[in-house]
Amino acid sequence: MESGSGAVRRHRVLVVEDDPMMAEVIASYLNHAGMLVAVAADGVMALDGFQAFNPDLVILDRMLPRLDGTHVCRKLREQSNVPIILVTALGEQDDRIHGLELGADDYVTKPFSPRELVLRAQALLRRTAGQPVQPQQAPQTRQVEDLVLDLTTRQVTKAGKPLRFTGRERDLLDFFFDHPGETFRKDELMQRVWQWKVGDSSMISVYVRRLREKIETDPANPTILNTIWGVGYRFGPAPN
């Protein structure tokens, strides 16, 4: 089911929620914010709807009939880097962490404010929409070991092979590329990368783990994104 109309290209959001009233409220708020919305009532419909609707963002409930949200998240992440907001019940911290490990970009807990959800959706869409590339001065790349960031295209490669990242993974990696050799605590990263003054710092561990799986030759023994025990994380070698 699709709602909204207009000739101007609008962001497309797939809402996966089995509670019809909740789905209607979310869709209404997103629609009023200028987004085009499709709703799926279970996990199987979500995967089918993703292919048919080609959304720019997915809002995904954790508890779903037929196929639960974590399985849907895993399936979506296998085929796309589309931003995903996971909706979980209050107190399900392990489920939230598991969802982030599977590739979700953000989460909200029930009960939540529909307005907050819209703001989170807009923030994710802004980050993934892409910004105009400005002419760069030399050097044209930044490199740590065999990991290279092209400053013109913003493409990241490892040993010459392009890598793909979710929105929040890329936020964190870009920050590290901008601050090589510096050490940051988890709370510093939360505030400086995403301007979160409060939140669950264990999310940083999740994103670091996900980054290492992509940028390290041996994620269990990292040499690029290092843990400085008792302090935090450092990207690249320590400064001389």
UniProtKB/TrEMBL annotation:
- DNA-binding segment(s): 139-237
Keywords annotated in UniProt:
DNA-binding, Phosphoprotein, Transcription, Transcription regulation
- What are the residue boundaries of the OmpR/PhoB-type domain, all occurrences included? 139-237
Q: Which Pfam families match?
A: Response_reg, Trans_reg_C
Q: Which residues carry this modification: 4-aspartylphosphate?
A: 61
What sequence ranges are listed for the domain Response regulatory? 12-125
What name appears for this protein in its UniProt entry? Response regulator transcription factor
Source organism of the structure: Saccharopolyspora oryzae
